[in-house]
């Protein structure tokens, strides 16, 4: 695989993470919006939201690209080219790759011809993917410096986790095959991140699609339908070199991020069910190890399905200067900011409540160790009560604005936040203090996906046209 060494620095993205911080302020953001699983028989769509505070359509959905099929469940998105191809003058960040988690289709969206009104460029059909690779349930996509696109897939066509692996598309979005070597597929699949200077890719473990697509059942964890491992691969060779068992402290490890500095050999992964942020790192002998970096204590609660409620860390990210880490507790309802300049001792520097199951007015109450009850103070924004809990987040390049949506996955939304399915998602923007730390809700920004033309929809992942800190990888 070429690292584009010696090329003129005029390809997509930025030469370094620190250079990206000085990039232009975001004016548009693309958001996947879902009708699948809501009872509304309409196709999912990609919403374009105006995030320019000087624009007359600020905080509004200005375009909707509806996909041509029903039942897709658009979820995460990635790019055909990113900063990993910055040195390649022939590369262009033109297409957004949008896998459909349930149907198995992969949509390729042209966002360059008209960034305010993207158009559908190509559809990779699940039958083609299954026939050539046996893979289904596509999730995370990353562009590679070679011009190829790699997509993690969570199972086979029958929803068995044993059939998962990594799909390769060529630069024209044709199915090439699997990335990993035969016999080197992970136990479960979900997210992945590569760090070429350490010749390493690490992937995470959600669960078997046959289980999670039906909603969450705690018994499925005991029955072995959910993961707790990190899978360490040789990069770019595709050989599974090591499997890290995170144990009971690392159940359902979801999003994974290396530090942005490509020389660093450290990263984090959020374990959803046990609500721990786990730091992984290379040891002196070249193997990889891990330790719990941050723990979110479960809340003792009344009037809920269990006597204790996990935070459920479902998404996190790291600022481009590697100073701050942000994560969400989807069930508790808070967003947290930690200073991670001392990687072994993260320091809580900001916290804001934007929803959750224990907010005032909810039937569920939390109980302190002293037996007192409490509920979180969640403000209304523009007269609107905040629904659900914080789920996906995206940070501006300069680190000063954090965007947040609140849908996880339609079957889980319906189970934990039925009001979210009935009334739709919303999108918020959080102002970030990057000097001293701190988070504050921007009262002027509120996108209500409950008032969409075809009915309430579920908003999930967000991307800027020029790239962001959860999709760009530097080499």
Approximate helicity band: under 10%
Share of β-strand residues: 35-45%
Provide mean pLDDT, rounded: 96
SS-based class? mainly beta
GO molecular function: selenium binding
Keywords: Selenium
InterPro entries: Se-bd (IPR008826)
Organism: Abrus precatorius
Distinctive features:
mainly beta, 5-stranded antiparallel sheet, 4-stranded antiparallel sheet, 6 helices, disordered N terminus
Structure report:
- With 475 residues, this protein is mainly β.
- Helix content is 7%, strand content 36%.
- It is built from six helices and 33 strands.
- The model is unreliable at 1-8 (pLDDT under 50).
- InterPro entries: Se-bd.
Write the layout of secondary structure elements.
Elements: H1 17-21, E1 28-34, E2 45-50, E3 61-66, E4 78-79, E5 95-99, E6 106-110, E7 119-124, H2 126-133, E8 136-143, E9 149-155, E10 165-169, E11 175-178, E12 192-195, E13 200-203, H3 209-212, H4 218-222, E14 229-234, E15 240-245, E16 253-258, E17 266-271, E18 276-282, E19 288-295, E20 299-302, E21 308-309, E22 313-318, E23 324-329, E24 334-339, E25 347-353, E26 365-367, E27 373-374, E28 393-395, E29 401-404, H5 410-416, H6 418-423, E30 426-432, E31 439-441, E32 447-448, E33 458-463
Condensed summary:
With 475 residues, this protein is mainly beta. The chain contains 6 helices and 33 strands. The strands form 8 sheets. Strands 28, 29, 30, 31 and 32 form a 5-stranded antiparallel sheet that branches. It has a 4-stranded antiparallel sheet with strand order 3-2-1-33, with no helix packed on it.
